[in-house]
Write a structure and sequence with these properties.
The complex is a heterodimer of chains A (261) and B (494). By secondary structure, chain A is of the alpha/beta class. Chain A has a single domain (20-254), classed as Thiamin diphosphate (ThDP)-binding fold, Pyr/PP domains (Rossmann fold, 3-Layer(aba) Sandwich). In chain A, 33% of the residues lie in helices and 17% in strands. Chain A contains nine helices and eight strands. In chain B, the strands form three sheets. An eight-stranded mixed beta sheet of chain B has the order 6-5-4-1-3-2-14-7. In chain B, strands 9-8-10-11-13-12-19 form a seven-stranded mixed beta sheet, with helices on both faces. A five-stranded mixed beta sheet of chain B has the order 16-18-17-20-21, sandwiched between helices. In chain B, helix 10 links the parallel strand 12 and strand 13. Chain B folds into three domains: 10-131, Pyruvate-ferredoxin Oxidoreductase, domain 3 (3-Layer(aba) Sandwich), CATH 3.40.920.10; 134-370, Thiamin diphosphate (ThDP)-binding fold, Pyr/PP domains (Rossmann fold, 3-Layer(aba) Sandwich); 376-492, Rossmann fold (3-Layer(aba) Sandwich). With 494 residues, chain B is of the alpha/beta class. Chain B has helices at residues 22-35, 81-86, 119-124, 136-146, 161-168, 184-196, 207-212, 214-223, 250-254, 271-288, 298-302, 349-370, 395-401, 422-430, 433-439, 455-464, 482-492, and strands at 10-18, 39-45, 52-62, 73-78, 91-99, 112-114, 133-135, 151-154, 177-179, 201-206, 227-233, 264-266, 291-297, 304-306, 333-335, 376-380, 387-391, 410-414, 416-418, 445-449, 470-473. Chain B is globular and about 85 Å long. Chain B starts with 9 loop residues before the first strand and ends with a helix. Chain B is built from 17 helices and 21 strands. Classes of the chains: A alpha/beta (261), B alpha/beta (494). Strand 2 (63-66) of chain A pairs parallel with strand 15 of chain B.
Chain lengths: 261, 494
């Protein structure tokens, strides 16, 4: 079946922006799931926050909910509670979920809400034309920190593991097939699925050359049910190497299951 | 009480430390009196702490309709000596004091008739409550339920918390669900996700918590999502005096949310009206796809009153035009951005103008609907040249004060604050033109409110052009005492 997943909306991301690669990965992921009868397209609802990533809902001809800045995650949980037969995916950014709405990220992981969160992580505020954020490296020079930011970033994957997320993964926007596979695995997982997708901002913080060299996929043999190993792996600092893949995946009752028990 | 024109009104006070069971005892006594056929009103006064302090329940009862409690006490029941000291000024001649501990300082006083009973045990002796002795929050929550509430979300905040407690206790496996998320911002955004998926939802908080919801309230207007918001006022600004009352958020409620969009704000005055407001709010929200605020306050939320609530009178009105995710061949888009008819973001001037006008077209429909609604209520003598106007819980002391008026006075209660029924309010305040001549220059319009700024008076001037110069304003966080209020009004209409 040929799904029409595009809208008439003109794509306004910067030419060459890796956000388009995430969009392609998602369309592929969904098309396959629908063709394999694993998903009814009308039962998909795509949420988005505010930031460059948030434009994605205009480019997807599926049910969508574009929230306020930082407030997408509680809206996702709300929709899932209201209709547990829906498949809820959410596109958020590092500014959206690591800064503005951080409390919701932690609580959604804690309550294991059965929603799927894809973070477009470009390590800056991009749509507001380039300021440091919660995951920018210390010393980042942006318009609000002309002498370099004085704050250390935090490690969002480590935070998600400690908050109780039952699916923790990372991908790289340039890895279209890998991102697609991880999105599908996240959707298949019952519980809170968190995927950090490295998405270099080619205009304000172009890290493409850096990450192209540094990213690598976890081996098939990496145990995804070992919390200690996952904690170690997401903190890996081996010559700046950045592991991609599923770090942790366990089964726990979901918030929505508990709600209707 | 001999000079009292309402000699059938009696008042019992129950005082003690937090944790002594003051509230429970007050409710038990009230329920018992009601079971004997009395009309009952109970106020609760307590500080923001868990143990100790001074808690007080004041139960006024009468064979006739009683709208408010009275300050002067016929009986005082205490679990500590301090309670007698605090309420000494309120004791009537011939008062009886009942205590569960010895009161050495006043034990010689012939007023003390009984010592040595435990307050909770004393309350138990009254038996089980009969009839409908209900507070505004519970009545409001039951109104929501009657109108098909699916989800209620709230972060606890006095004086709205008992809505959360009541509805949480009414959850069922397949029916009503109650969620307490991480904060108020999560509560309202979660609620919007539920509405998007097709559920009838309400959120509630005190005004401070509603302040945190402002951005999402505005989103509700932009996305045209039906949502009921219960807002209970307490003394403010900021954290204020959490367990005490005020009516200082009228302007905040009607202007809430950034940007311009239609909304409905209803302010009930007693538990029966709170029930109706809860049910109406849900149905109106769905009919017009707008946010509806029900504006309560500490007094209305927590004080209890003999009430007749008719659950059967409520219909669940659906909106057949709305579609939700999960509908084959339909794509349902909601967005906080300005958007076209397909839910796609737009920045085109003509699209934006059209979208604003589309949203505001509903305001005209709401205004038409308003004509069939009780936007204001009239009590007292409708032909009187003198008018007292008020809103919210101030209804209770005004109607109780009316029993002590020296002259007949027309009483006008405003229920719809937004949209404002300017024509009707103007008509009611200006009085009957047939009597206008006989009024001469004597007529008085008096606005009674629990705030410093005279917010209803200013709204009336804004909407009708009528300037109300006579105001009785109370902003010490305490309820109006009906007899004191009656004196003030009597002085103004001499």
């Amino acid at each position: 079946m040929n799904l029409e997943l595009s809208t008439k909306s003109k794509i306004t991301w910067c030419p060459g922006c890796p956000n388009s690669q995430i969009l392609v990965s998602f369309r592929k992921a969904i098309t396959e799931l629908v063709n394999e009868d694993k998903l009814k397209i009308e039962n998909l609802a795509a949420f988005a926050g505010i930031g460059c990533h948030g434009k994605i809902s205009d480019y997807l001809n599926v049910n969508s909910f574009t929230s306020l800045h930082g407030r997408m995650i509680p809206a996702m949980t709300g929709a899932k509670c209201a209709n547990p037969t829906l498949t809820i995916v959410g596109f958020s950014g590092d500014g959206d979920s690591y800064d503005e709405g951080l409390e919701h990220l932690i609580h959604a992981a804690k309550r294991n809400s059965d929603v799927n969160l894809f973070i477009h992580n470009n390590q800056i505020f991009a749509l507001t034309t380039g300021q440091f954020d919660a995951v920018s490296p210390k010393g980042f020079k942006g318009k609000s920190t002309p002498f370099g930011s004085i704050e250390e970033p935090f490690n969002p994957l480590l935070l998600m593991l400690s908050a109780g997320a039952t699916f923790v993964a990372r991908s790289y926007a340039g890895e279209i097939e890998g991102t697609k596979r991880i999105m599908q695995a996240a959707i298949a997982h019952k519980g809170f699925s968190y995927v950090d997708i490295i998405q270099p901002c080619i205009t304000f913080f172009d890290t493409r050359d850096h990450f192209k060299e540094k990213v690598y996929w976890l081996g098939e043999d990496f145990p995804t049910n070992d919390f200690k190993k996952a904690m170690e792996k997401v903190q890996e600092n081996d010559n700046g190497k950045v592991p991609l893949g599923i770090f942790y995946k366990i089964d726990k009752p979901t918030f929505e299951e508990e709600l209707y028990k | 009480m001999s000079e009292n024109p309402q000699s059938d009104i009696f008042t019992i006070g129950v005082g003690g430390a937090a944790g002594d069971g003051v509230k429970k005892a007050g409710i038990k006594i009230g329920a018992f009196l009601q079971s004997l056929g009395y009309q009952v009103y109970i106020s609760f006064d307590y500080p923001s702490l868990i143990r100790g302090g001074h808690n007080f329940a004041r139960i006024s009862f009468s064979k006739n309709k009683i709208w408010n409690d009275h300050a002067k006490l016929d009986i005082l029941i205490v679990s500590n000596e301090g309670s007698v000291e605090i309420h000494r000024g309120e004791l009537k001649e011939g008062v009886k004091i009942i205590s569960d501990i010895p009161l050495p300082k006043i034990s010689e006083d012939p007023k003390v008739i009984f010592e040595g009973t435990n307050l909770a045990a004393f309350a138990e002796s009254f038996g089980e409550p009969k009839g409908e002795l209900i507070d505004g929050n519970t009545a409001f929550a039951r109104g929501l339920q009657a109108a098909g509430l699916d989800f209620y979300l709230a972060y606890p905040m006095t004086p709205s918390t008992s809505i959360l407690h009541y509805l949480a206790s009414k959850q069922t496996k397949e029916g009503l669900k109650v969620i307490q998320p991480e904060n108020e911002i999560a509560a309202i955004n979660m609620a919007l996700g539920m509405v998007y998926a097709g559920k009838r939802v309400a959120v509630g908080s005190a005004t401070g918590g509603f302040a945190l919801m402002q951005e999402a309230f505005s989103f509700t207007g932009m996305a045209e999502l039906p949502l009921v918001v219960a807002v209970s006022q307490r003394q403010a600004p900021a954290t204020g005096a959490p367990t005490h009352s005020s009516q200082s958020d009228l302007r905040f409620a009607i202007h809430s949310g950034h940007g311009e969009f239609p909304r409905i704000v209803i302010t009930p005055g007693d538990p029966e009206e709170s029930f109706k407001a809860g049910a109406d709010a849900m149905n109106l929200a769905w009919k017009f796809q707008v946010p509806v605020i029900v504006l309560l306050d500490k007094i209305l939320s927590e004080h209890m009153m003999t009430s007749a609530i008719n659950t059967d009178s409520v219909l669940v009105e659906k909106n057949e035009n709305m579609i939700f995710p999960g509908t084959p061949d339909k794509v349902v888009k909601v967005t906080s951005y300005e958007h076209d008819e397909n839910g796609i973001t737009t920045e085109k001037a003509e699209d934006i103008k059209r979208a604003v006008e589309r949203r505001f077209a509903k305001l005209e429909n709401i205004k038409s609907e308003m004509q069939n609604r009780e936007t204001a209520k009239i009590y007292g003598d409708p032909t009187s040249e003198n008018v007292v106007v008020f809103w919210g819980s101030t209804k209770a002391p005004v109607l109780e004060a009316a029993k002590y008026f020296n002259k007949p006075i027309k009483l006008v209660q405003i229920i719809w604050l937004e949209p404002f029924d300017a024509e009707r309010v103007k008509r009611e305040l200006e009085g009957n033109p047939a009597f206008a001549e006989s009024y001469g220059g004597r007529r008085k319009i008096i606005c009674v409110e629990g705030n410093r700024g005279g917010q209803l008076a200013s709204l009336i001037r804004e909407k009708t052009g009528i300037e109300i110069t006579e105001k009785i304003l109370k902003y010490d966080s305490q309820p109006f005492d009906p007899e004191v209020l009656a004196e003030e009004i009597n002085k103004k209409v001499m």
